[in-house]
Amino acid sequence: MNTTRYSTHLGLIGMAALWGASWPWGRVVAQAMPPLAAASLRFLLASAVLLLWLARTGRMGRLRSLVGCQWLGLAAAAAVGVLGYSVFFLLALKTVPAGKAAMVVALNPVLTMLFAVLLFRERMNLPICLGLGLAVSGTLYALSGGSWALGFGSTSGAGEWLLLGCAACWVAYTLLGRLVLSHVDALTTTAATASIGALLLLVVSLVVEGPAAWAGLTDVRADAWYSLIALALGATALAYAWYLKGVQELGAGAAAAYMSLVPLFGMLLSSLWLGEPVTASLLRGGSAAIVGMGLMNLGRMRLARQPMPLQQGGARPG
């Protein structure tokens, strides 16, 4: 039991490192390839690896045993977590530096916690509430280049607003994943959503970008292809599986808490690989967001040590 929990936590740290690296990788890809075609290739490659993984572990039969409502849930998760997120992700990285863009990840546990409270009746306390406010404020400060409001009078552009779409899609994917994972294991869920999402992206790319976008891929430079492969194998196949395993083993809120490490990895790797400057507003806002997520984690740990309140008559709230 303890060994399983330790491996789950280590997997979530690895997930954070890979998703931090996904921002500089994505920046390279977004500058060199049509976004929808690139996203299609990313998930086609990732889904092939995941399906092979399922086959090698003897779990392909689990896909065939899924019923209609489960496929519907997986399709909904793919639509928001693969199609929606990928579109916002690559379009935003056309204009926003990777290190700055990685800061939007700080919003994910905040929004996940809020919706988990509303939908799943998860508990809150004072540290969680303070952390929510600090994480949101710090993220908006970093994204807007030194303003406490993302919008009028700030240096924000369309790219920053697209990043908020990334956050919304990821939170929806996390919460849908929690519902789906009550009946389907993490690897099967990841393989199914990646495969469905790849097909959705392919159709949308052919309709919106046309065959010419795919023909132009032959002229793409080598470093963009390396980054795309790294996105597919590392930040998609492996990291998604680790993340959903964390949701399954620890719960949506606890797994999302590890995203506090993603901005750190994202800023560090973007600076090292792409030479991006780390501005004062990014440092101040990022520090505030990370402290806020730390407070949320502290509050969540305190709640975990407390017994669930009992209703009159001894029944736990439903």
The run of helices and strands is HHHHHHHHHHHHHH
Count of distinct strands: 0
Gross morphology: globular
Let me know the largest β-sheet: none
Domain count: 1
Looking at the chains present, what oligomeric state does this protein adopt? single chain
Helical percent range?
over 70%
Please tell me how large the radius of gyration is. Answer: 20 Å
Mean pLDDT level = 84
What is the number of helices? 14
Structural class: mainly alpha
Write up this protein:
This protein is mainly alpha-helical and 318 residues long. It has one domain (7-305). It contains 14 helices and no strands. Helix 2 (35-56) crosses helix 4. The chain is globular. Mean pLDDT is 84; it is low at 150-154 and 310-318.
Based on the model shown, name its key terms:
disordered C terminus, mainly alpha, 318 residues
Provide the fold topology.
Blueprint: H1 2-32, H2 35-56, H3 60-64, H4 68-92, H5 98-101, H6 107-120, H7 126-143, H8 158-180, H9 186-208, H10 211-215, H11 222-250, H12 252-257, H13 262-274, H14 280-305
Helix pairs in contact: 1-11, 1-13, 2-4, 2-9, 2-11, 4-8, 4-9, 6-8, 7-14, 9-11
